[in-house]
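Task: encode each sequence below as C-alpha cells.

Item 1
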Amino acid sequence: MKFGINVWSYPKSLPLEEAMAHAASIGYDAFEVALTPEDWEHWDSPGWVKKWGAIKERGKELGISIPSVATGLFWRFNMLTQPQDALKVVRMECEAAELLGAKLILVVPGVGVPELSYREHIKRAAAVLKEAGKLAAAHKVFIGVENVWNRAFAGPLEFEMLLDEVGHERIGAYLDVGNVLPHSLPEHWIEVLGKRILQVHVKDYSVAKGTFGVPLSGDVNWSNVRRALAAVNYNGYVVCEVPPYPGDAYQAAEDARNALREVFGK
C-alpha cells in the first residue's frame, strides 16, 4: 500500500511547495494536487502550463510522486445542468495530469437537481462521463468518479449502476471512505466496486458530531476497510483528504500519517 495526501489537507494559505515539502518529509509517498478557480480563469495560458511543469519538477526534487489531479470546480459546474462547462473542467484536469505525468483525475458525477427524475440523473451523468472518457483516452489518463455528498448515487449499488451505464474502460471509482458515512458502510462499497476502484481517499467521520477528521478519530471501522481492500487486492494509493487543524498547518497531516501506519501497518 502506498500513502499519499491531498493538497486540501493543508491550509489554503500555505504555499503548495511548502505543503509538498512537508508531506515528503514525514514519509508520504505521493501528493495529490488540485485545480483551483484561478486555474479556470487562466487556463491554457503560458503561465498555466509553466505552473504544472514547476510542480512536476518540485515533486522530482522532493522524491514524492504526483499520481492524481483533483478539483472542487465540479461543485461550481454541475455536469447534470452544465455539461459543456463540466467537460471543460475534465479537459483542464486531463491537460494538467499530462503535464505532471499523473495518471488519474478526480471527477464529481454532478449534484442532485430537484427538477430532474432520479433516472434522469443517471442518464445525464453517464452521457457526460462517456464524453469525458474520450478526453481521458486522448490524454492517456484515467477518470476516478468520486462518491460525494451530492444527493445522488449515495449507495454502492447505485454507483455501480452509474459505472455500468458509462461502460468506459478508462472510467472507474475514486472511493472516498469517509464520504460514505453516515448513510452506508465503506466495506460494502469496496465489496461491490472491487476492481473498479482506481484510487482511495481516506478520512474519518463522526456521526455524533457530524464532522470529518483524521483516520481513527470517528466511526469508520478501519479494520473492516483494511480487510475489504485486501480482499479485492487493492494495492494503489491511499490518499488522505483530511481537514487541517485551525491552529496548526501541519499537525493534521502528521496525525493522518501516523494513523495510516496504525491501520495499514507501514
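Item 2
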Amino acid sequence: MKRIPYGKHHITDEDITAVVETLRSDFLTQGPKVQEFEEKFAQYVGAKYAVAVSSGTAALHLSALALGVRQGQKVITSPITFVASANCVRYCGGEVIFCDVNPETILIDVEKVEAIVKGNPQVSGIIPVNFAGYPVDLCELRKVADKYGMWILEDACHSLGGYFVDGNNIKHYCGDGSLADLAIFSFHPVKHIATGEGGMITTNRKDLYEKLLMLRTHGITRNAELFTENHGGWYYEMHDLGFNYRLTDLQAALGISQLSRAEEWLRRRREIAQRYNEAFSGSYVKIIYPKENVYHAYHLYVIQVENRLELYNYLRSKNIFSQVHYIPVHLMPYYRRLGWKKGDFPNAEGYYERCLSLPMYPTLSDEEQEFVIKTVLEFQK
C-alpha cells in the first residue's frame, strides 16, 4: 500500500485553470479576486462580512487587535488547539488563561469558563476552538459572555461547513456571526479548502469589519470619509499600527475554485467518519461521537487508545502516517515559563496521552480506508 498521510490537499484541473487565468490578468497581489472570494465565502458561511488574510494565524492576530486586546487584559482559550489560538493574545500584550476541556467532546468546558470569569474580572474575551470540526455550543457560551460583558472570537479553522441546531431549531453555522463577534478560518493545505497559506475572518459587525480592513494593510485607509485632510486622488492615511496581512489574487482564485467543491468534500468527510465509527464501535478504540443536533465538519478524525505510541509506530510500519492533535499548549516551554504546569488541566492532559488522528481527507479511497481500519484493529491482537 502506498503512503497514506493523515491529511492531504487536492488540486484539480479547474483549480489550476483558475490560477493560470489570474496569472494572465492585471492583478497578482490584492485585486478583484480577493473581494470575490470574500463575498462568496461570507455567503457560504452565512455571515455579512468576510476579510481575507495571509494565514489563519494572521486572522487570529488581527481579530485580537480589532477586539482591543492589550496589556493587562486576560483572554480564555482551550489548551487543546494549535499554539496560534493562544499566541494571538500574547502578540497584543494580553494574558492567556487556559480552561480545561470536556472529556466527551474535547471542547472548552463552558461551566469551567464561567468559574474562571467569576474570579478574574479582567477577562475581556473567550476564544473557543471548534476542535477537529466539532462546533462549540456558542449559545451557552454567549450567555456567559453577555453576563460578564465579554466578546467571543470563534476559532473555526477546523470546522468549515459545520453547524449545530439550537433549542429553537435554528441552525448556527460555524462563522456565521450569529453568536460570535468574530470567527476565523484557515486555508492551510490540510484544511477543508486550500489557498497554500491563507485565512479568513467573518463577522456581522460593521465596526469590526472596517477596522479589520485597515489593520490588514498597515493601518492605512483610502476612504476619504475617514481622512483628517485630503491632498488629492493619490492621498491615503495611516490611522493605526497595522500589518501587511493581505491575501493575493492568485491565492484567492484558488480559494474560489476550491470553495465551489466545499459541500461535496464535506459530504465525503462525513462518509469516511461514518465508516470509521461503524468499524471501531465496540473495539478497544474510543471514538468522539457528536451530540444530537451537532453537525461535525471532520477536519480530523481522532481516536483515543491506551497504547498510543505503540499504535502510532505500528501504523508507520505499515505506511500509514497518523498524527497527534495536539500537545496541550500550556505544556509548551514558552507557556511553562509563564507559570503553567503539568497537572493544571487533567482532562486535556489525559486526552493528549491517548489521542491519535487517523487519515481523513476527501480523496482517501475506500480501499485505503479499509486498510487503515484493518491495521488499527489487527494491532489489538
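Check on item 2: The longest strand covers residues 49-53. The mean pLDDT is 97.
End of task.
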